[in-house]
Amino acid sequence: SQSPKRRFGAEELVHFSRLMTVGELSACFAHDVVNPLTLIRTQVRLLQDALPADHQLRVNCNAIDGASRQIQEMTQRLGDLADKTSHSLESCEASELISDAMRFVQPFLRSPFIAVQVQVGTGLPVITVNRGQVVHAIVNVFRNSVDAMVNSHHRLLSVNASVLREHMRIVISDTGCGIPSRDLPRVFDPLFTTKGHDSAGLGLYITKLVIEEHRGSIEIHSINGGTTVMISLPL
Questions:
Q1: pLDDT tens column, 103-152
Q2: Strand pairing partners for 226?
Q3: Distances from the Cα of 8 to the Cα of 16, 129, 189, 193, 201, angstroms
Q4: How do residues 179-209 score in pLDDT, each as one tens digit?
Q5: How far is CA 154 from CA 115, 141, 147, 226, in A?
Q6: How many Å apart are CA 88 and CA 232, to the nearest integer?
């Protein structure tokens, strides 16, 4: 028998509305920031061309250009994640999906320092997915892992990709605080969070929707020494 559908209260519906507005603003920001960034990079290149090869200001110009390029890449990824209308599919390697997601969360790995270990099997087949959506799903898991390790002495984010029974399996593990057993059945519920006001409680809910939309599955196992998330996508 099907479980009854959950009814959201007025406060939760208002929260959903606010989150939708934030998403729309993020997409607008990602779109509008491209022009000023392009202008900055163009002006820096003109300045570089005008400077002698050994001029000391070239170091400053290189730093500005590098920082601008990083912002441009981040806004591009933000735009990709905010694109709810795109349903295009493309052939991707698991390593590409993981590296794209890793670049998006890289700033959150630096403080506190989190070691990263990625193992991708050789010769893995490609999978046909909506790249932006799946990267978004993996980013959500990464962010949860990072948050869970804030107070851990040993901080390691492990990612493993392999093929099992005609499915690409991506396993993400952390050495964080773990999820209490009483909360495990609810982790995929919309608006459920153990982080208080620091989280909207939609990350794993969205991740599950994305994975199931790709005819895949997601499982979570957790102990006091950390959490493991297993994502399975059909080949």
A1: 888 878 877 789 999 999 888 999 999 888 898 889 889 988 998 898 88
A2: 223
A3: 10, 31, 12, 15, 14
A4: 888 888 888 887 656 665 555 556 788 888 8
A5: 9, 19, 13, 11
A6: 20
**Within the chain, where are the H helices?**
10-32, 34-50, 57-82, 94-109, 131-148, 203-213
Q: Which residues contact 96 (CB under 8 A, 6 or more apart)?
A: 131
CA within 13 Å, CB half, 139: 22
* pLDDT the model gives residue 82: 58
Q: Determine the Cα–Cα distance for residues 174 and 116; give it in Å rounded to an integer.
A: 10
Residue 99 burial (CB < 10 Å; 0-12/13-18/19+)? middle
**Cis amide linkage into residue 52, ω under 30° from 0:** no
Residue type, 214: H
User: What pTM was computed for the model?
Assistant: 0.65
**How is residue 152 written in tokens?**
């851990």
d(CA 133, CA 214): 10
Query: Quick one: CA dihedral 32, 105, 150, 229, positive or negative?
Result: positive
The interaxial angle of helices 57-82 and 10-32, nearest 10 deg, is: 140
